[in-house]
Amino acid sequence: xxxxxxxxxxxxxxxxxxxxxxxxxxxxxxxxxxxxxxxxxxxxxxxxxxxxxxxxxxxxxxxxxxxxxxxxxxxxxxxxxxx
Length: 83
Prior knowledge:
Layout: H1 2-23, H2 27-59, H3 61-82
């Protein structure tokens, strides 16, 4: 939830920067605002994905453990092959 809130704040702040940059003809500020908006949107989506994963893990812990073991096995096999 924290990432979603912080992402929303960054999106709004980026929008304000973008508008102020457009009003003052400051293209640098406008670009920073657009970048901040995109970063905020990505942060919100990441927070949403983390929250969704958490809910799934609580609802179905056995499947979550099985997936974690499978990922660990695949990573171990990949790293063993590299050596």
